[in-house]
Design brief:
The chain is about 0% helix and about 40% strand. The protein is mainly β. A hairpin with a 3-residue loop joins strand 4 and strand 5. The longest helix is centred in the first third of the chain and has 4 residues. The protein starts with a strand and ends with a strand.
Length: about 375
Amino acid sequence: MKRRARGTRTVLVALAAATLLAACTQDATPSAPDAAPAPSAAAPLPATAPTPQGLLLTADFGGDTVSFVDPGRGAVASVAVGRAPYALAVGADGRAWVATAEGVAVVDTRTRVRVARIPYRTATGPVTDGEYRGGGMGIALSPDGARAYVGVNVPGTTGVLEVLDTASREVTAVVPVGRRPFDVDVSRDGTEVYVTGHDSFDVTVVAAGPLSTRRIEVAPYGTEGGLGSWLKPHYTAVRPSDGKLLLPFEGERLAVVDPRTGRTAVEPMTADTHQHGVALTADGRLLVVGTGAVRPGDGKGPSLTVRSPDGTERVVPLDGPHEDVAVSRDGRTAYVTGGFTRDGHWNGITVVDLDTGTTRRLPAGTRPLGIAAL
């Protein structure tokens, strides 16, 4: 067994075959969603009216849709996009690119119409549900909006990064990356793409021009346990100040990766909880979603960590597991999706006031995972 950061608990690193793939996370029969407070009824948007600014857009992993969500009232419209949508990216032109099990759906968020669905070039097996299903996971756009990059999970083997031309809506290249590409990010200048390989303990750095690759192992706890380990990378944030990659682990360690040198520095964290989604505010605060203890007694409950650039942290408790997070344009509100990739998910968003730490639950979508503020 391998000690965690403070040596106060042990982590199982060898699991029986039946539970090995459960580590982050086996998707069994979904549990019933938790009840959430009922807000005032949200009137649907008129079909011909333009989408108001300030709405949220969620990828409804359990509903085959994206939902438009009023932060005060809840979901007001939805658009069918394809099976098990995981993540999404929204361009300056108002088009959302949604990674589903069937392909990348393109949604005009101003008119709320799906205008295309682009099939993957890579064979990923039957179209199914659940976190281990084949198809798109992380997705990102180049700064100029000319390319979309989607990490495609290929069950049982390494994944790929598919590059899409957003004008022609065609896949133009396929690049091998790590296993189960949870997240895809792009450098501020658009010259590099970073693919977080959950099951391979790595980030693949892809040069956007020649599409050459470099693998950086990111494993502050080591790789003992392999697929059965909980101590693997999930989501990555690119720090604007220096381009370094920020990957949180277990509410105990923040891996700060220099993509140029491949070197990793480790900084302490304080939430003591299994961690997934990340976002950065304009003033440099890192928001990290804590999903709760991976085993009873082995960590604290769900939370949102608000980490300042100087490393100080405030931990906001959350009611139940969550998956990903987006931040309002003014940086004062965080929106945390309750979809979660494991059991315990619920159909909504927790709205967090970052000034006061107060929270409220907002019903929205069906098992929402990815989220963006329009």
